Amino acid sequence: MRDITFTTVIAEDEDLIRSGLVRKIEQSRQSFAVVGEATHGEEALELVRRIQPQLLITDIRMPVMDGLKLIEEVHKYFPRTAVIIASGYADFDYARQAMKFNVKHYLLKPVKQLELAEVLNDIRAQLSNEPIVEANDIEKTVQRVQQYLREHFHEEISLEQLARQFNFSSAYLSKIFLKHAGEAPSKYIATLRINEAKRLLKHRKDLPVKAVGEQVGYGDPFYFSRIFKQATGMTPRDYQK
Fold first, then answer.
1. Which of 85, 190, 198, 199 is 20 to 30 A from residue 48's alpha carbon, by CA?
2. Class of residue 160 by CB neighbours under 10 A (exposed 0-12, middle 13-18, buried 19+)
């Protein structure tokens, strides 16, 4: 099996239980590294957004955002992140609800070292068996992303939405796009929008600046003017003259 370290985030509001999980994961020697810890679901979701971990271990009952809502959000926006529930016996019915979000593993507190090791071994096999994309396929994928953006740049597109469209994590898509296109997806979208705005301002002088901004994906005219001036050194109105 390939020598890979799998990044892990733990969401648990009780400090002793959370630190115990971290220690047991380290002792399991299963190539999982805890890269983030959260005391409630909202904090955990922010970590998942920022780190894009391969594994999330979460409790069910937590303040601010509970584990079920966290699992739902992770399933929706980060489908490649595997999830393990570590919770009490009384939460088992809630844990069953999480199955509709593709959660297959439930550990009963207090988590036993052997049970944790068995589940981590299963998760490791699952993650290790994900298909590996070869270099030519990656380049073709980036070209497909560019084509998609050329056709949809006038729409509201977030990095997360774009990543889901091509079944990648946003972090991975950004990485391969930057490597093969030489710029971030957001910069590519902005360039497409500014170039189209310049064309419309030059050839469609009957269009108000606000309408031009809307046609290229900027609903806020003030934001459009600021972005346009940053890119061209001129306001859209001055460019149109």
1. 190
2. middle
Report d(CA 63, CA 206) in Å as an integer.
54
Q: What is the DSSP letter of 111?
A: P
pLDDT over 90 at 222, yes or no = yes
- The CA dihedral of 81, 85, 86, 90, to the nearest 10 degrees, is 160
Q: How far apart are CA 125 and CA 6, in angstroms?
A: 11
Residue 232's Cβ-count burial label (10 Å; 0-12, 13-18, 19+) is: middle
User: What pLDDT is recorded for position 132?
Assistant: 47
Question: Hey, what are 79's tokens?
Answer: 């489908």
Residue 82, classed as helix, strand or coil, is strand
- Taking residue 16's Cβ as centre, other Cβ atoms within 10 Å add up to 8
Give pLDDT tens digits for 90-148: 667 777 777 888 888 888 888 899 999 999 998 988 887 755 447 567 788 888 899 99
| The pTM of the whole model exceeds 0.70 | no
Instruction: Tell me how far apart the alpha carbons of residues 67 and 106 are, in angstroms, rounded to a whole number.
Output: 12
Tell me how far apart the alpha carbons of residues 181 and 78 are, in angstroms, rounded to a whole number.
24
Q: Smallest Cα–Cα separation from 172: which of 185, 163, 181? A: 163
CA dist 128 and 48 (Å) reads 20
DSSP 213: H
Question: What is residue 135's predicted lDDT score, i.e. its pLDDT?
Answer: 58
Tokens coding 116: 């944790």
